[in-house]
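Run log, item B.
One chain of 477 residues. Sequence copied directly from the ordering sheet:
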Amino acid sequence: QIDPHTAPVVLESYIRYDQGATMKEVMEYMAENGFTTIRGRKIDLNFIARMLKNRKYIGEYSYRHIVTPGGIPAIVPQDLFDRVQQRLEQNRKAPARHKAEDDYLLTTKLFCGTCGAMMVGESGTSASKGRKYHYYRCVNTKKHKTCNAKHKSVRKIPLENAVVNATMAKVMDDHFVEYIADRVMELQSQESSELPALRQQLAETERGIENMLNAIQMGIINASTKQRLDELEEREKDIELRIIQEEIKKPILSREDVTFWICRFRKLDVDKLDERRRLIDSFVNSVTIFDDHILITFNYRDGETRLDFSDIESSDLKSVGGPTLSEKPSEMAVFLHLSLDFIGIYGPRRCNMGVASVSEYVTSLNEEQQRHICAFIKFMNAEYPQLTNKISFSMPMWLVGKKMNEGYVAVSAAKNHFSIHFSDEEFLNRLAESLPACKKGKRCINIKYGDEAFLHAVEESISDFLKLYRSEGSSSL
């Protein structure tokens, strides 16, 4: 069984590390919350490293070298676990990342333009003044001394400042924001190649069910007829579930969601280490040091910025200004492999939980939970397509307006029931009074799995709930 006391802290630790926190910062977070090892000892970095690699948190049960996926309840979503493993591997290959008091933000992204090798962080102390200096150096100038680059080492702070400035210039460009929003909307509208085949299978299955019902009406009924009808109905439910899962694989984002995701970087305090790291990790693919210039490649096809070394020497963070309305950045075509996943990882995480999209939420559920939650999602999307569907507070939510305080309906799954949430407490109280057999939770009504009558009653009440908002405007939350 999941420990309700420790499970949220484990999940939050994974989220923090995925979003850029160091192992030391995760360790401090757990210590601040009063957590120790099972033997009561103080948590150390080795404990954090083991915890972040522990596959039991994704539901894997291991006994005598026999691994059973899904053998125990999962705490951490698979996508989140995979991203954490990727970051652990990246940091393992960055031997000089923590040699300085400050992180080397360009580690694994900085390359020598002469020999192509990686440039890593180093520090040294001046013999005359005793000052400590931090810089990046080509690895081939250290061991094998095979690189004859003009700039074998580059000072850390001026280089990082220049990269931050160049990245912020992109983020501050309104044309850039509009262009990326256009591309995401275009990619989001592209239908999955699986959907047409699934819809055809569903149509064929529905025809089969109709034929069986016609045969029964004509008096042709026996044991095999009943068995075949049951098989077709089960197949119909399975295909409908697969269609819903396919339809929600891509996060449903409005243009405002995409614009919000990019524009929120404009408010970063680039004097803070975590926010500088977040900016670079989100937008910068690589930085290459040539003899006469520096090339910054962003996470977009042909998205490059060239800097002279004079730009680095003069770079300071005070030069980050307001929006630039110069030429349209036609070179900034989004990489297809980033597309919606790129937005999905960062954008919907305005909430502070572990799922980033509706599909990620659904896949984290068991079979029974998936069946009921997917059916409700299908109902809401079909009946109320004008509502904005998104993930908020780690559950599928439908917004009446653009913000939560303008009204919402949401759904979440529990072990023995699922909950339908409403933003209006008075409406919820009236609904609970009309359905005394359903337990009222905090801003929600709980329905046991299989209670179709109560589910239909709640579904029918949603139209009344929306009328309330249309007639009275926004209700207080």
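Observations after the first pass:
- Residues 223-247 form the longest helix (25 residues).
- The chain has a mean pLDDT of 77.
Flagged for discussion on Thursday.
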